[in-house]
Amino acid sequence: MNQQFTLLKKAAEVFHSYGIMLNGARKNDHFIQNLNMDPVFVNGLIFELEFQLKVYLQEEMLQRACTPKELIALFLEMPQSN
Fold first, then answer.
1. Which of 9, 69, 79, 81 could form a cystine bridge with 27, CB 3.0-4.6 A?
2. pLDDT of 28-49, one tens digit each?
3. What is the rounded distance in angstroms from the CA atom of residue 67 to the CA atom of residue 1?
4. Structural domain of residue 62, as residue ranges?
């Protein structure tokens, strides 16, 4: 549980650095359609999350993550390596 809290805190910091707030309904906004993010910045966000959380997602898994909430859920599903 403590490790998940640490991951969530790091993820929130990365999202905040991209100007994405995770509170309220904004966590369900589509990256491109609602948040008006360029796909290059979405890829940068994913890379930064992978780097900070030390968890690497497969390309197939990323296609189903279109919102901040879905992306965080993917990172939390992945087994953690120490």
1. 69
2. 999 999 999 999 999 999 999 9
3. 23
4. 2-77
